Amino acid sequence: MDTLVLKTQKKSPPALRIVVFAMTMISGVFICSICMKQLGTDSWSRMVKIEVAEQPCNKSLIPLSEVQFVHYPQPQNYSRKECMCTPVRFFAIISSQRSGSGWFETLLNSHINVSSNGEIFSNKERRNNISSIVKTMDKVYNLDWNSSASKNECTAAVGFKWMLNQGLVANHAGVVDYFNQRGVSTVFLMRRNLLRQMVSQLANNHDRYIKQLNGKHKAHVHTRDEANILARYKPRLNTTTLIWSLKQADDYTRDALENLKSVRHMTMYYEDLIQNRTKLVDVLDFLKVPRRKLVSRHVKIHTKPLSDQIENWDEVYNALNGTQFESFLTADYRI
Q: Residues 226-273: pLDDT tens digits?
């Protein structure tokens, strides 16, 4: 019986095999058409787009030591199109008030491939806890943050400015973990002369209330006339608490930077940038963006020696002379 069955199968006519094959093809087409109707045209197009978007970019030219710091963001609000495979570096400018960070950021933003989005954590809600901080940073680094710093050209470095007292010190452990995991490069921008920084802070606070420029407060100005008006104010310093205040500011900054030292960083001083603009090349090299001439419309407000900018200069001089802060009295720079 088995022999007869086998022989019968071998003698199946070719026409029968053709019919079975045709029926299989028709069934496959029918099933595929049903799936297409259920997905709809939009869903199908989304599937195709996702497949294209997820095509990997060529990373073979990137050194292994740099892979952690190179990213290919896919914004939710727009398509990077031809910039899709342009690598993007993440950065943060860590500083404190009246340390030249506003001027420094405008210099960076004059670069066609750099976008620095300002003090995003000046808004208290964004720095309530580490979760809100991470959510905000994710939006910036995914190129979904809309600001005047956004570029039409291919962005090669994106970041923001962060003051130490804007939730950074309080959440430093979580921030360090995030920076190291996401490959964020950090520029520590500080000011050596804390006495000059104090004068600038007091003058800025004064204008915040007085509003000397046509009833408007300006922390930064773009004309020499405006700068001269703001520079007229000479603060009177409390010499009784002066040394304590300077020491507190110094310790606060040192402790903060100590807690952040494990991230990839470079340290830059405002005084060095003022006297030697070529220091900006070091910053561009650190961010791995092409070297370009950087410009800013900011005009420096306080350009005179400290003796001409403090109302009770003699008292201040006597209070600091012979102390660890006496170098601040004479460490002026040429503008």
A: 999 999 999 999 999 999 999 999 999 999 999 999 999 999 999 999
Tokens (6 digits) for 288: 């791995």
CA distance 36 to 319: 82
Contacts of 297 (CB under 8 A, 6+ apart): 106, 222
Alpha helices in the chain (DSSP H): 2-10, 14-53, 101-109, 130-141, 172-182, 194-210, 224-231, 242-260, 270-275, 279-287, 313-320, 327-330
- Ordered by where they begin, the domains of the chain are 67-328 (3.40.50)
Per-residue CA distances from 176 to 83, 145, 179, 185 (Å): 29, 22, 5, 11
Which residues touch 214 (CB under 8 Å, ≥6 apart)? none
- Per residue in 9-59, pLDDT (tens digit) is 444 555 655 655 666 666 665 565 655 555 454 444 444 333 344 456 877
Candidates 148, 154, 100; CA nearest to 120 is: 148
Give the residue among 123, 106, 282, 121 at the shortest CA–CA distance from 188.
Answer: 282
